[in-house]
Amino acid sequence: MRVIVVGAGVVGTMHAWQAVERGHEVVQIEREAEARGASLRNFGQIWVSGRAGGEELETALRARELWEEIGARVPGLGFRANGSLTPVRGDLELAVAEAAVAREDAPARGYKLLTPDEARALNPALRGRFSAALYCERDAAVEPRTAQLALRAELLKSPHYTFKPGREIREVIGGNAVRDDHGDVHCGDVVLLCTGAWLGGLVREVAGPELPVRRVRLQMMQTDPLGEPLTTSVADADSFRYYPAYRSPALDELNARQPQPETAADHRMQLLMVQRADGGLTIGDTHEYEHPFAFDTLEDPYDHLTEVVESFLGRPLPKIRRRWAGVYAQCTDPGRVVHRQQVRDGVWLVTGPGGRGMTCSPAIAETTAKELGW
Ligand SMILES: Cc1cc2nc3c(=O)[nH]c(=O)nc-3n(C[C@H](O)[C@H](O)[C@H](O)COP(=O)(O)OP(=O)(O)OC[C@H]3O[C@@H](n4cnc5c(N)ncnc54)[C@H](O)[C@@H]3O)c2cc1C
């Protein structure tokens, strides 16, 4: 079978991976010289901890297994089973963490409630003040800026794989074929449009204006090397307010009695932080839903994040080296892991994994492969 994959982000690349693994011929087409979208701009968190129970958690756990397998073959991914810690302060935050560890699926996530000393034994860089920490053993990380390049280098070892960068797909022709902006036509038995958050143009034309997917913009930053290991990823208790796994009467109580600080509430913020291979810290994030999106990055959210991180680390942050924003596509029904739609005979659109796309893509691609009978 010949598979045409449009888009070289993690969703497209994982579909290419699944197809090549099954012995199919794959042509992957990307309009930029290399992917430049959400797949490079994210934290690289393979994030199991906050996933909703049921299909979403199962997808994330399966994806984590696949990341680990692929990571063993492709060291350039930088896969590491680092786990995560969410330090909490005060009874209201503690009660949400306690409700999380009481969930039926807590063992599958590897949740544990730790004392500050136990948390520091895992991650000695957390010298700041907190009263307990929620540990999630299943969380992991990869290096987002290099992961797609490393995967591509591995795919290129296969005689069945071709990468065509610098070509924007403009048109779907009948079933099974696409035309690029050079005028070339690419035919396959199946075409997968993995075009990320570009929901206008081609995608609007083939999927219609009522696509149940929206765009979300996030602000991020990265520091100079910390000068010491941050052995786990770190989140703050504001992350409880945004991830479905933490929904509980205790969370309602937290929301009612302890509102977020104004800047965090205005920009719908939480802290997520992961150390990069070079020792720098990737720190975020904000969430912007209303269009038109800002074209600049705002300083207040960065000041807030800096304050939160410094309170956990008990030391000043190194210099901020990079600031950026990214946009992902998210299903408007938060219960849906991805939007997978047959838009023509032999042509499928796969988009909308939202803030879990880096985590879930290997399993999303595996499901596509099964559904399409590859
Ligand atoms: C700031 C930020 C932080 C995040 N953090 C995490 C995280 O830690 N963990 C997690 O699980 N998820 C995270 N996410 C979500 C995750 O990054 C995305 O869900 C995922 O990367 C989406 O991958 P994609 O391949 O669909 O899109 P993209 O990476 O955007 O790739 C789509 C590609 O398609 C190409 N393309 C588009 N149209 C065409 C066309 N017509 N012809 C040819 N090529 C085309 C684009 O150039 C692009 O390279 C984060 C997202 C952001 C923005």
Question: Which short descriptors sum up this protein?
Answer:
374 residues; alpha/beta; eight-stranded mixed beta sheet; six-stranded mixed beta sheet; 12 helices; binds flavin-adenine dinucleotide
Helix-strand layout with pairing:
Layout: E1 2-6, H1 10-21, E2 25-29, H2 38-41, E3 45-46, H3 55-73, E4 84-88, H4 90-101, H5 106-109, E5 111-114, H6 116-122, E6 132-136, E7 140-141, H7 144-155, E8 161-164, E9 169-173, E10 177-180, E11 185-187, E12 190-193, H8 201-207, E13 213-223, E14 233-235, H9 249-257, H10 262-266, E15 272-275, E16 281-284, H11 299-313, E17 320-331, E18 339-344, E19 347-351, H12 357-371
Parallel strand pairs: 1-2, 1-12, 2-8, 4-14, 12-19
Antiparallel strand pairs: 3-7, 4-6, 5-6, 9-10, 10-11, 13-16, 13-17, 14-15, 15-16, 18-19
Helix pairs in contact: 1-7, 1-12, 3-12, 4-9
The chain binds flavin-adenine dinucleotide.
What does this molecule look like?
The protein is an alpha/beta fold and 374 residues long. The protein has helices spanning 10-21, 38-41, 55-73, 90-101, 106-109, 116-122, 144-155, 201-207, 249-257, 262-266, 299-313, 357-371, and strands at residues 2-6, 25-29, 45-46, 84-88, 111-114, 132-136, 140-141, 161-164, 169-173, 177-180, 185-187, 190-193, 213-223, 233-235, 272-275, 281-284, 320-331, 339-344, 347-351. The strands form four sheets. It has an eight-stranded mixed β-sheet, with helices on both faces. Strands 8-2-1-12-19-18 form a six-stranded mixed β-sheet, with helices on both faces. A three-stranded antiparallel β-sheet has the order 9-10-11. A hairpin with a 5-residue loop joins strand 15 (272-275) and strand 16 (281-284). Helix 1 runs parallel beside helix 7, helix 1 runs parallel beside helix 12 and helix 4 (90-101) packs antiparallel against helix 9 (249-257). Flavin-adenine dinucleotide (FAD) is lined by residues 6-12, 29-32, 35-39, 41-45, 47, 168-169, 194-198, 202, 218, 220, 284-285, 326-328, 351, 353-359. Flavin-adenine dinucleotide binds next to helix 1, helix 2, strand 13, strand 17 and helix 12.
